[in-house]
Amino acid sequence: MRIFSPHHQVKKHPTTPQYKWRQELSGSAQSLVVPLACLLFLVGGVYLYSVNKSAVQNYQVLSLERTLQELKKENAELHVQATEAGSLLRVEEGSQNLRMEKVSVDGASHGTPSVALR
Q: Coil, strand, or helix at residue 34?
């Protein structure tokens, strides 16, 4: 007489419902599992590569936009400086500091033509 305790485990035979899927898959179906798993792995790798590349390009675009804003600001400052440096008032002040005198351009009074000759 055999007594079964609650801790006694009964070994399941491969024909039990737990192992039934092994019997249902034919040889051709089992041969499709490995290629499908490889394909899934490959598609996942391509997806990760494309997402990573997109993130890198997005970072580069943001970096270039920041650089563009800085260059626009610097260009505006340089434009203001060029305008100030080229203003007539500034040139006249500079000429006074260098003790320059105004020259009258009246070629007829000196008897020389106002156009250079070749």
A: helix
Residue 44's SS3 state is helix
Q: What is the largest CA-CA distance in the chain?
A: 147
Please report how the helices 27-86 and 88-97 are oriented relative to each other, as an axis angle in degrees rounded to 10: 60
Burial letters 27-39, b for 16+ CB under 10 A, else e: eeeeeeeeeeeee
Distance, CA of 1 to CA of 21 (rounded, Å): 35
Cα dihedral 49, 53, 59, 63 sign: positive
Read off the pLDDT of each residue in 1-6 and give the average, rounded to a whole number. Answer: 56
Report field, pTM of the whole predicted structure over 0.70: no
Kind plus residue range of the DSSP H or E element containing 41: helix 27-86
Higher pLDDT, 81 or 7: 81
Residue with tokens 């019997």: 23
Q: What angle do CA 53, 40, 22 make, to 5 degrees?
A: 165
Structure tokens given for 7: 């801790």
